[in-house]
Specification:
It is a single chain. The chain is of the alpha/beta class and 114 residues long. It contains 4 helices and 6 strands. The radius of gyration is 17 Å and the shape is globular. 28% of the residues are buried.
């Protein structure tokens, strides 16, 4: 069976987007629970995003600090001016339900709870 050339070329040149792309290949990441305190998950995740090969936008979210590791912090994901592809939640378990609700309200495309 032969396919018209344009069908084959379209599939090779422009791969389709998948529902999990925002999680596995995000263009922007918000670290909720980002902190400067050594040894914390929030700091480790933020440091790794800032020093490794991630080339997207990184946002720090912390309601108690104005800056973390040189980044301006936002009090909530709702305060970030852009839509976030991936929210990484590194906060106490008792806060997760409220934070995920805020992620949904802000239009975050995906979230990971650590």
């Amino acid at each position: 069976m032969e396919f018209p050339p344009n069908i084959i070329e379209e599939n090779v040149v422009a791969p389709q987007k998948h529902g999990l792309d925002a999680m596995f290949t995000p263009g922007s990441v918000a670290v909720i629970g980002a902190t400067s305190r050594p040894g914390t998950v929030g700091r480790t995740v933020l440091e790794n995003l800032l020093r490794d090969t991630f080339r997207g936008k990184v946002y720090a979210v912390n309601s108690k600090h104005e800056e973390v590791l040189g980044l301006k912090t936002y009090k909530s994901i709702r305060d970030i001016p852009d839509r976030v592809d991936l929210a990484v939640v590194a906060t106490p378990a008792s806060t997760v339900t409220q934070i995920i609700t805020e992620c949904v309200d802000a239009g975050a495309k995906s979230a990971v709870v650590i």
